[in-house]
Design a protein that fits this description.
Strand content: 5-15%
Radius of gyration: 24 Å
Order of helices and strands: EEEHHH
Structural class: alpha+beta
Number of helices: 3
Shape: flat
Oligomer: single chain
Number of strands: 3
Distance between the termini: 42 Å
Strand order of the largest sheet: 2-1-3
């Protein structure tokens, strides 16, 4: 599948812009910045209409919430009505897993970025 536009060849209807201010604004030219390496930002494509929606091909099956944003099928799903009851041994195992994960996160924070 080939895209209609690319950053190298944008069209008037679908321009590619640079993301600025942590996503709050856009610019047509790459912002000036003193980059230290070879990695550079890539322009993002602007929305195709005011609602930020893209056209979906007719052959793609749409879920019930595509038009109304009301997920009726999800609310009526059997999975939403089933409550899992864990045995005490399973709860103890889950708690131990959480303790180990928390210890791993704390260890990574103590090491810090860039230090091994």
């Amino acid at each position: 599948m080939t895209p209609k536009t690319t950053p190298e060849s944008p069209t008037k209807d679908e321009p590619w812009l640079w993301c600025l201010s942590r996503g709050r604004s856009r610019a047509e030219k790459m912002p000036a910045f003193n980059y230290s390496g070879e990695l550079r930002p890539f322009p993002i494509m602007t929305p195709r209409n005011a609602l930020n929606l893209r056209t979906v091909p007719a052959e793609v099956v749409r879920p019930d919430y595509a038009e109304t944003a009301d997920p009726v099928s999800e609310a009526e799903s059997r999975q939403q009505q089933v409550t899992v009851e864990y045995k005490p041994a399973q709860i103890a195992t889950l708690r131990r897993c959480c303790e180990v994960a928390r210890g791993a996160i704390d260890a990574v924070v103590r090491v810090g970025p860039g230090r091994y």
